């Protein structure tokens, strides 16, 4: 009846849609950060590198806030298990940049690029996979809730 309909719609909003939106936002921020890291490594001017350093820090802060939003949409054990995969690969990605950044700041761009590629590629790929898994879970959850809504027979 109506209660089941309202519960399914509320769950869809609080869990599935919020999770998809939050994951998409975090993924976008991570991709923007990756672009800024590449700009940092390519820059010849130290002031450009300093600007990218500030931008990367801002993005890290936004990613942290975004991940808090993702966690608000986590309501099941399965979602918690999926969500737990994000933080370790994110930290590994940040560590890889932290290792390459001083080399880039020193103007040794080719070396910084090689260091970044060697250390960051695997964590970045893992991060994208973990975020995609979270998004896919939320999309499946949304589909399930939509089916529950449809099953109520209320049009």
Low-confidence stretches: none
Structural class: mainly alpha
- What is the end-to-end distance? 11 Å
- Helix fraction? over 70%
How many helical stretches? 5
Structure description:
It is a single chain. The protein has 155 residues and is mainly α. The protein starts with a helix and ends with a helix. 89% of the residues lie in helices and 0% in strands.
Features:
single chain; 155 residues; mainly alpha; 89% helix; elongated
Q: What's the structural blueprint in terms of helices and strands?
A:
Elements: H1 2-42, H2 46-72, H3 77-83, H4 86-105, H5 109-151
Helix pairs in contact: 1-2, 1-4, 1-5, 4-5
Write a concise synopsis of the structure shown.
The protein is an all-alpha fold and 155 residues long. The chain has helices at 2-42, 46-72, 77-83, 86-105, 109-151.
């Amino acid at each position: 009846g109506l209660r089941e309909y309202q519960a399914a719609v509320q769950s869809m909003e609080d869990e599935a849609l919020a999770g998809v939106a939050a994951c998409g936002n975090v993924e976008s921020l991570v991709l923007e950060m990756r672009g800024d890291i590449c700009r940092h490594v390519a820059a010849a001017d130290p002031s450009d590198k300093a600007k990218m350093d500030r931008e990367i820090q801002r993005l890290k802060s936004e990613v942290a806030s975004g991940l808090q939003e993702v966690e608000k949409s986590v309501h099941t054990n399965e979602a918690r298990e999926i969500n737990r995969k994000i933080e370790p690969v994110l930290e590994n990605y940040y560590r890889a940049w932290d290792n390459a950044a001083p080399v880039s700041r020193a103007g040794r761009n080719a070396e910084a690029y090689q260091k970044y590629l060697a250390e960051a590629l695997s964590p970045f790929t893992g991060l994208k996979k973990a975020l995609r898994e979270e998004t896919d879970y939320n999309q499946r959850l949304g589909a399930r809730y939509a089916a529950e809504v449809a099953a109520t027979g209320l049009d």
